[in-house]
Automatic annotation (TrEMBL):
<dbReference type="InterPro" id="IPR015797">
    <property type="entry name" value="NUDIX_hydrolase-like_dom_sf"/>
</dbReference>
<keyword id="KW-0460">Magnesium</keyword>
<keyword id="KW-0479">Metal-binding</keyword>
<keyword id="KW-0378">Hydrolase</keyword>
<feature type="domain" description="Nudix hydrolase">
    <location>
        <begin position="19"/>
        <end position="149"/>
    </location>
</feature>
<dbReference type="InterPro" id="IPR047198">
    <property type="entry name" value="DDP-like_NUDIX"/>
</dbReference>
<dbReference type="Pfam" id="PF00293">
    <property type="entry name" value="NUDIX"/>
</dbReference>
<dbReference type="GO" id="GO:0016787">
    <property type="term" value="F:hydrolase activity"/>
</dbReference>
<protein>
    <submittedName>
        <fullName>NUDIX hydrolase</fullName>
    </submittedName>
</protein>
<dbReference type="InterPro" id="IPR000086">
    <property type="entry name" value="NUDIX_hydrolase_dom"/>
</dbReference>
């Protein structure tokens, strides 16, 4: 059964709430195999996938595509099919950890822009699925990347 995703309505949150983010698993097919685009985080330089907060009026997949554009210059097509969820603690400016869960959506990359909002703050690089998974610090996200199969997307 196909479930249509609706635009998001954001409500006020409390500091103890678990926050939701939407993440983009950006991929391309090269020699019949998927390659995964990773970006570096701004603060630590570790490899991550683009992700961000919900935006009123956008679907989760549209939010993921927006983050892929801002963080990696991705021009492509997001699918409304969640590949999985992973959890992590987002380190805030005060050094406190904010519990987050990120829903991962596939974004098929058509092209990469040279100039995009965060191009001076991040690096981006293509990896095989195995190498991308090995560079990620969140075990749940690494599993999502390792198990990703674009052939089964609706």
């Amino acid at each position: 059964m196909l479930i249509k995703q609706l635009p998001i309505t954001v409500r006020a949150s409390h500091k103890s709430d678990v926050r939701t983010q939407f993440a983009a698993l950006c991929y391309r097919i090269s020699q019949d195999r998927p390659q995964i685009l990773l970006v570096t985080s701004r603060k630590t330089g570790r490899w991550i996938i683009p992700k961000g907060w919900p935006v009123c009026g956008l679907t989760p997949a549209d939010c993921a595509a927006k983050e892929a554009w801002e963080e990696a210059g991705v021009i492509g097509k997001a699918r409304d099919q969640c590949l999985g969820i992973y959890s992590y603690d987002k380190v805030m400016d005060a050094g406190n950890g904010l519990p987050c869960v990120a829903m991962v959506y596939p974004v098929k990359v058509k092209t990469l822009a040279q100039d995009y909002p965060e191009h001076a703050q991040r690096r981006r690089k293509w990896f095989s699925q195995k190498k991308a998974a090995a560079r990620l610090t969140e075990p749940e996200l690494a599993r999502i990347v390792r198990d990703f199969n674009p052939k089964i997307l609706r």
